[in-house]
């Protein structure tokens, strides 16, 4: 049976497409083998950027969006995740920092930026964390000084499922949508479900 991508990742792709971005999924990146902090046994596995969006007409950090997703049912709690990272706690069966290695470890930050540059031609981008919902204050994450500096000063933004679906719904018409996600949202609307506005 073929594996299907995460629904949040599909929503991200649809959302970016509606905004005029060209989208690429699962851009792999490893740290450089010649990096002074490279440890073969720890760093030989690739990580990946879930979605990269490239907009041909935008400038600055809005031209490219590098999106990581966290589709946890309980939502994303920025303060709790930062506490786990900074205090070496385990989350979901592994060290918390490993879920955010591009924000925490310089060798992974460099690899992340290099992958974005190779795919898009620029190292100026916005680092987006797409989540099911935010529990607490998103500014704790978006304004965290250590994270902000990690991917070469790229801005950090949290984007929720509600944010994305509301915008997609607002752009849909009664003309048959061109994607499964768009069509599904049209069907919800046709069936009388309330929109997420």
Can you offer a commentary on this structure?
- With 197 residues, the chain is an alpha/beta fold.
- Helices cover 38% and strands 19% of the residues.
- It is built from 9 helices and 7 strands; from the N terminus they run H-E-H-E-E-H-E-E-H-H-E-H-H-E-H-H.
- The chain has helices at 7-18, 40-43, 78-86, 101-104, 106-120, 139-142, 145-149, 161-171, 180-190, and strands at 22-29, 47-54, 64-70, 90-91, 94-95, 126-131, 156-160.
- The strands form 2 sheets. It has a 5-stranded mixed β-sheet. A two-stranded antiparallel ribbon has the order 4-5.
- A hairpin with a 2-residue loop joins strand 4 and strand 5 (94-95).
- Helix 1 (7-18) packs across helix 8 (161-171).
- It is globular.
- It starts with 6 loop residues before the first helix and ends in a 7-residue tail after the last helix.
- The model has no long low-confidence stretch (mean pLDDT 89).
In total, the number of strands is 7
What fraction, in percent, of the residue positions are helical? 25-40%
Sheet with the most strands?
A: 5 strands, mixed
Q: Tell me the overall shape.
A: globular
Strand order of the largest sheet: 1-2-3-6-7
Distance between the termini: 36 Å
User: Oligomeric status of the shown chains?
Assistant: single chain
The overall pLDDT, averaged over residues, is: 89
Percent of residues in beta strands: 15-25%
Radius of gyration: 18 Å
Regions with little confidence, pLDDT below 50 for 5+ residues: none
Taken in chain order, the helices and strands follow as: HEHEEHEEHHEHHEHH
Class of secondary structure makeup: alpha/beta
Total of DSSP H or I helical runs spanning 4+ residues: 9
């Amino acid at each position: 049976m073929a594996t299907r991508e995460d629904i949040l990742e599909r929503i991200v792709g649809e959302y970016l497409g509606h905004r005029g971005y060209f989208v690429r999924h699962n851009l792999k990146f490893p740290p450089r083998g010649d990096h002074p902090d490279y440890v073969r046994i720890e760093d030989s596995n690739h990580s990946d950027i879930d979605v990269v969006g490239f907009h041909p007409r935008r400038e600055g950090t809005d031209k490219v969006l590098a999106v990581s997703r966290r589709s946890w049912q309980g939502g994303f709690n920025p303060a709790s995740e930062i506490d786990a990272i900074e205090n070496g706690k385990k989350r979901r069966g592994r060290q918390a920092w490993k879920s955010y290695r591009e924000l925490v470890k310089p060798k992974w930050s460099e690899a992340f930026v290099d992958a974005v540059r190779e795919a898009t031609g620029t190292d100026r981008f916005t680092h987006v964390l797409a989540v099911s919902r935010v529990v607490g204050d998103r500014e704790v994450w978006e304004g965290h000084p250590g994270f902000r500096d990690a991917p070469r000063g790229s801005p950090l933004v949290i984007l929720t499922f509600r944010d994305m679906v509301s915008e997609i719904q607002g752009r849909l018409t009664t003309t048959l949508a061109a994607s499964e996600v768009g069509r599904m949202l049209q069907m919800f609307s046709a069936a009388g479900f309330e929109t997420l506005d």
